[in-house]
Amino acid sequence: MARCGNRLFLAAAVLLLGASGAAAEDGQVNTIQDIFRHLRTCWKPPPASRARPLDITVVVSFNRSGDILGHPRISYEAAEASDNDRLQYRIAVMEALQRCTPLPFTDAMAGAAAGRPFAIQFRNRKTSPDKTSPPTQERRA
């Protein structure tokens, strides 16, 4: 009996792995990492002529069909950013969300992700902060 159970478990695992591989090939979102990857493919930061590079984080939730649920909220922006920088990056984030939604969730991911908040970081800094410079204060939006 144990051998039969092991074979069934192995067969189920192979089917599940095959299904998730097929979902990834179809461009569907099947994991949490796929959500982040998919959204980052739509990210187009403002050109340097319009805003200084900065990092920004948005908290967003999705429904089962992959559409945005409620209103996305900016939870972090670099403290040294000007009002214009913030505005340009907020617009770029909202445009990325519009380009990428609805997310093509698999059935399993639709149930797992629906209603849960995700903090998505969009990074555009060209260099890391100098270790000799004083630390900057984080600004919460």
Q: How would you characterize this protein structure?
A:
With 141 residues, the protein is an alpha+beta fold. It has helices spanning 2-25, 32-41, 83-100, 107-113, and strands at 56-62, 68-78, 117-122, 138-139. It has a domain at 30-124: 2-Layer Sandwich (Fusion Protein Consisting Of Minor Coat Protein, Glycine Rich Linker, Tola, And A His Tag, Chain: A, Domain 2). The protein contains 4 helices and 4 strands; from the N terminus they run ααββααββ. A 4-stranded antiparallel sheet has the order 3-1-2-4, covered by helices on one side. The chain is elongated, with a radius of gyration of 20 Å.
Low-confidence stretches: 2-25, 127-136
The quaternary state of the protein chains shown equals: single chain
Structural class: alpha+beta
Main sheet specs: 4 strands, antiparallel
What Rg is obtained from the alpha carbons, in whole angstroms?
20 Å
Terminal CA distance reads: 59 Å
Strand content: 15-25%
Broad shape:
elongated
> What is the number of helical segments per DSSP (H or I, 4+ residues)?
4
Q: How would you write the strand order of the largest sheet?
A: 3-1-2-4
Query: Would you list the SSEs in sequence order as H and E?
Result: HHEEHHEE
CATH-derived topology of the domain at 30-124: Fusion Protein Consisting Of Minor Coat Protein, Glycine Rich Linker, Tola, And A His Tag, Chain: A, Domain 2
